[in-house]
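Re-run with default settings, no changes from the original entry. Doing this only to confirm the output is reproducible before filing.
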Amino acid sequence: MRMPTAAVYLSTAYLGPIQYYCKLYHYGSAMIEVFERYPKQTYRNRCIIAGANGPLSLSVPVEKSENAKSYTRDIRISNHGNWRRQHRQALLSAYNMSPFFEYYADDFMPLYEQPFNFLIDFNDALCRLACNLLDLNPSIQHTTKYVADAPNDFRNIIHPRHPQPDATFRPVTYYQVFSQRLGFLPNLSIVDLLFNTGPEGLIVLRDSCCEHALAQNN
């Protein structure tokens, strides 16, 4: 794996998609943006998993701020409703028949019981866990200010509703529980990769990186 000198710039992400973790794999060093004006309806507070009937979006509710232009670092998780239980149940329903769910579920589920106040802290904890289970060891830091023209900038390219062209990502297929009925669903949450492939998920990340294209961009 070639290690560029410049870090990749990423948004925070709730159980981010495979594309997100491909950047962590390839660059090995990441700056997580916390000084942006928090945008709605992005991977920052949502993930997409494979439900029995197709892609299923799970969103972490956040508190409305009096300041319409709050920084991402200041976004608080809302404790209203039963979203934690609903997310745990959705993961159980989607992946209880997957090959590695029983090995990893006990690592993920306790994080939904912890009283995280800020979205960035919850996302960071889940990201560290996913990286650890994948034997992926990127150096991850938070930004200290907003840089408009950052190098290797994927902060807004990786998007659930409006993805931007990314010549450096080519999703490869892997086993999915519902693939016979739904076909292969690309670029789902990292938990889809972990629960279905276990430690071989690292190979999927490697093969999903278009290293030739990455070399041309650096």
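The beta strands are 8-11, 29-33, 46-51, 54-59, 139-142. Residues 8-216 form one domain.
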